[in-house]
Description:
The structure is a single chain. The chain is an alpha/beta fold. The chain has two domains: about 5-205, Rossmann fold; about 215-370, Rossmann fold (3-Layer(aba) Sandwich). Helix content is about 35%, strand content about 15%. It has a seven-stranded parallel beta sheet with strand order 3-4-2-5-6-1-7. A seven-stranded parallel beta sheet has the order 10-11-9-12-13-8-14, with helices on both faces. Helix 12 (about 280-290) links the parallel strand 10 (about 270) and strand 11. It starts with 9 loop residues before the first helix and ends in a 5-residue tail after the last helix.
Amino acid sequence: MPFQQLGLAAPIIQAVKDAGYTEPTPIQTAAIPVVLHRQDLMGIAQTGTGKTAAFVLPILSLIAAAPVQHRGIRALIMVPTRELVVQIEENIRIYARHLPLRVATIFGGVSERPQIRALQHGADLVVATPGRLLDVIRGREASLRSLEFLVLDEADRMLDMGFVPAIRQIVRLLPRQRQTLLFSATLSREVEKLIREFMHNPKLIEIGRRANPAETVTQYLYEVSHHAKPALLSHLLQGDSLHTVLVFSRTKHGADRITRRLESMKIPVATLHSNRSQNQRLRALQDFKDGRVRVLVATDIAARGIDVDGISHVVNYDFPRHPEDYVHRIGRTGRAHAVGEAISFLAPDDFSHLRTLERFLGRGILRRRVEGFTEPHNTAAPHKHTGPRDLSAPAPYRPRRDTMPWRLRRSYQNKNRFPRHA
């Protein structure tokens, strides 16, 4: 079905044509007519299937069909990360290139003043993270009274990250007569019940299984000890088969350690985590998109905002603790029906998480051996107390601790220092 048959406005169809899109994806085909009919919607589909266009295109079409004279926020899109804000804002500008609309972005890590100024000048669409939006909107609640559309993108991640109180505060400021849309790649039953309090008789559209990663991604894992992970990653990156690689670390400090090691090997690498400034994060993502760096090392906090075409490999350097994180990580490759590979390093203490993941996916993950790689010996110094203590040896000297409570001891000392005279 071409885009012309979905009921979109002519300027939107022209912008989609200019962007090079010919046919909508399954989630777009199912979701766009529902949104155009002003019905609340919960859309669940794999990453890389075009969920952003599934809600941006019909919202732009409805806004274009009913222009208003006053300047006020008509659509609010809330996402969990700054990178996702920038990504959606870029897509909106592409799809709205033939419309006289103003788009504003609100996220942390940068100054509030330009964001406040954008709201004061009037914005039709706002893409924001919940925390910074609350900070910016205080005292300007009137700007939300004309809102018509509320979108929660990657809603499960926002709720997992603790944004529930902020989202509830924002929803209380919005008019009751609005259209609420929710899109995500995964959605647990518990989160689904929580989300329904924001929506009115939502229609559920589910493309594929909720636990189903992209079918074009080949998944396998290597069993390796913790101390051998750096050597294994270095060995895999020696050839040219891994040319555009996204490496996921569990912690920010771990990501920095991986980056330092790859830099010592003269491998072009960039880092993306919450300790980096906003300009550093945007520069790292842009360098990765433009091919100036071969490897991007990131944490899970940034996994939802990385939309880069042509990622050949995703490496789970630290095995994810939650199955949903695994699905989102490997969804960064194999996007838009492209082919990709997901490699996971499995340490001895990760087997329980692997069993949980395989139950979640409903199938096992292939184990492989690395050709030409020999795991190095652990050169870390052994712990001092490797056996039972020799009871015949004299006990080490320890100074005797005064058993008198410190308050009484201080009172006793002061009393002797300043004796009372008759």
